[in-house]
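Obj: model holo form, ligand = NAP.
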Amino acid sequence: MAKQIKHKPIVGCMRWGVWGENFTTKQYEEIINQCITIGLNIFDHADIYGHYTTEADFGKALKGNSNLRSKLQLITKCGINMLTPNRPNHNIKSYDTSASHIIKSVEQSLVNFHTDYIDSLLIHRPDILIDVEEVAATINSLKQSGKVKSFGLSNFTTGQVALLHKYINVEYHQVEISVTHLNAFDDGILDQCQVEKIQAQSWSPMGNGLFTEQTEKNIRILFTADELSKVYNCSVNQILLAFLYAHPSNIAPVIGTTKFDRIMEAKNAMEIELKREDFYKLWTASTGKEVA
Ligand SMILES: NC(=O)c1ccc[n+]([C@@H]2O[C@H](COP(=O)([O-])OP(=O)(O)OC[C@H]3O[C@@H](n4cnc5c(N)ncnc54)[C@H](OP(=O)(O)O)[C@@H]3O)[C@@H](O)[C@H]2O)c1
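Output (holo structure tokens):
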């Protein structure tokens, strides 16, 4: 397969609001503009981030600024009903992909972002009761009205993606992929993305808990990544992204940092060509055993 052009990192905003740094509007404006300046103009959200507050916090930076809005692309997600005082009518955490839920969530996202379109809408989790024909009809009508430009899924199995894809064009699949979470590499998800020309997006690309939990696995990975960072003359974070970029499915990492320096680093990681053996050094550090 010919080497594809790498997808630039997508800037994840989950930790920008009350689930993390709790940026002021001025800080949002600053970091959004900095990202755009270096060419990273796709921002990842979900209705639930910050217990349903982060979209609106980010949106304050877009209010009355159609010029800024036109320079960026917004991904958001819906389909989870989270238990929070901000949604007192939710009695249990559950999933909802009914037409009424999707439409209500999109309308709220449009208000939050002070915009009249969402660039990419993803269904956040696989609702067990999903009615695929209803979802397809709803997304098609949102696309026809111009409120949603493109559609994708997040955290679905290959079978569920195939089912949806029969009824509607699935353009993205956002799943957890990193040196600590290898499943997508060999459970068919990334193969399916290549076969069906679905863009694979990896959330938590730095490895969930890698820097905070001192497990034997994490210690092995960090030791190996550190060794490789000296060889490639780059940071450990860049090695972790180069690991994803090495895969031919052309994964777009959804980076979650709140620091512009790390965002810049992530962009520059696109330049690193990890050698095959070095990919397997990280793989082996993660699994704790030689490949068969
Ligand atoms: N679809 C889904 O179900 C789903 C689920 C989770 C997340 N997401 C999306 O994916 C995005 C990324 O997720 P994530 O935030 O878990 O990704 P991540 O990029 O793997 O992790 C970011 C976190 O790691 C910290 N970090 C990065 N480098 C570090 C280092 N060298 N030393 C110590 N800490 C370091 C960051 O801290 P600093 O801020 O200090 O850099 C931040 O807290 C989210 O923003 C969201 O948009 C999607």
